[in-house]
Design goal:
This protein has helices spanning 19-23, 37-47, 108-116, 119-129, 157-166; strands at 2-6, 26-31, 51-53, 75-76, 80-84, 87-92, 95-96, 105-106, 135-138, 170-173, 186-189, 192-196, 200-204. It has 208 residues and is an alpha/beta fold. It has one domain: Purple Acid Phosphatase, chain A, domain 2. It has a six-stranded mixed β-sheet, with helices on one face. It has a five-stranded mixed β-sheet with strand order 4-3-2-1-13, with helices on one face. The relative contact order is 0.18.
Length: 208
């Protein structure tokens, strides 16, 4: 199955009435944060495929009662684990905390606590399916992989430990832009392929 993953930047190749001509064989869409909800809603309405997303550090605090705080027709996946199209997918949004009052920002310790909330489901999946997770979608990268040294773009150490324990097949993120000599967007880490999807990427995966 082909998956369209998007993050951070509206891309004119997607935000067009011809999107179906280029992405008609996509079976699932994953959003890694910091995208206008109108953009996500456009994608899901035109492609008519499930769209799961997590928030970025520039997104509003999720509120299912407010049209301005959710993407209509899309499924919010932050701190959740779901089974869809025979794939197990989890989501963890947000960035490192660099401003004391902004939403969707966390300290290194806080991200460890957020990870703990989904671990029971992942251990149960390992028992049921023989593996814990196929895909984790996040906004920020793991610490030391595709991240930056400035205060707002440091990755999470918790994600490294998460990958070591649960070994998802793919870890998808946005938040950082490949520029200059930092051109790598695919980095294997153990059994996991870490992918920076900024601004979009097509991924092919088959259920195990």
């Amino acid at each position: 199955m082909k998956i369209l993953a998007v993050s951070d930047q509206v891309d004119e190749r997607i935000y067009t009435t011809n999107i179906g001509d280029y992405f008609n064989n996509v079976g699932l869409v994953l959003g890694c944060g910091d995208l206008p909800y109108a953009y996500l809603e456009f994608i899901v309405s035109v492609l008519n495929k499930p769209l799961l997303y997590v928030p970025g550090n520039h997104d509003p605090l999720y509120d299912p009662r407010s049209p301005d705080h959710r993407a209509e027709g899309c499924e919010f996946l932050d701190q959740r684990v779901i089974r869809l199209k025979r794939l197990t997918i989890a989501g963890l949004g947000g960035s490192i905390r660099y401003h004391p009052t902004r939403v969707n920002q966390y300290t290194q310790a806080e991200m460890y606590l957020r990870l703990l909330r989904i671990t029971p489901a992942l251990f149960w999946n390992r028992i049921r399916f023989g593996h814990a997770l196929d895909i984790l979608i996040a906004h920020s990268p793991p610490r030391g992989i595709h991240d930056e040294n400035d205060r707002a773009h440091i990755g999470f150490s918790a994600f490294l430990d998460f990958i070591r324990i649960f070994a998802p097949r793919y870890f998808l993120h946005g938040h950082t832009m490949p520029l200059g000599d930092r051109t790598s967007t695919l980095t294997p880490f153990g059994a996991t392929m870490v992918i920076n999807v900024f601004p979009y990427r097509i991924i092919e995966i088959e259920p195990l």
